[in-house]
Amino acid sequence: MSTLPPHACRLRVRYAKDGRLAYLGHLEVMETIMRSVRRSGLPFEVGNGFAHRMRIQFSQALPVGASSKGEYYDLLLSEPLDATVALEALKEATPTALAPNAAVILPRRVPALEAWVDLSCWDVAVRDSSLHAPGFEDALGRVRDEGVINYLRGTKPRSIGLADTLVSCEVRDTDGGVDLVLHTRSSNRGALRPAVLVKAVCGLAPLRVCRTGQWHQDDDGTLRDPLAEGQGVLLP
Amino acid sequence: MRLPRTDRYAELEPLLAQVEHPSRYLDHEWGACDDQRGPFHACLIYADVYEVGQPNLGLAILYNELNQQEGFSCERAFLPWVDMADLMRERDIPLLSLETSSPVASFDLVGITLAHELVCTNIVETLDLAKITLRATERDEDEPLVIAGGPSVWNCEPVAPMFDAVLLGDGEGAWVEIARYVRDAREQGVARADILAGLSRMAGVYVPSLYDVVVDDTSTRWGYAVPRPGSGAPEVVYKHCVNDFAATEPVAQTIVPYMGVVQDRFAVEVLRGCARGCRFCQAGMTYRPVRERPADQILSAVHAGLRQSGYDECSLSSLSTTDHSECANILSQLNRELSGKGVRVSIPSQRLDSFGVDMAAAVGSSRRAGLTFAPEAGSQRLRDVINKNVTEEDLDNAATNAFRSGYRRMKLYFMMGLPTETDDDLRGIPQLAEHVLALGRKILGPRAKVSVSISVAVFVPKSHTPFQWAGQLPLEEVHRRQQLMIHAASDRALRISYHGSWPSLIEGVLSKMGRRGFDLVYEAWRRGCRFDAWTDQFRFDAWNDAAAAVGLDLQDVACEEFDVDARLPWDHTSPGVSKGYLQREWRKATQAQVTADCTRTTCTGCGVCPTLDTSNRLVGERA
Question: Are residues B317 and B435 in the same domain?
Answer without folding.
Answer: yes
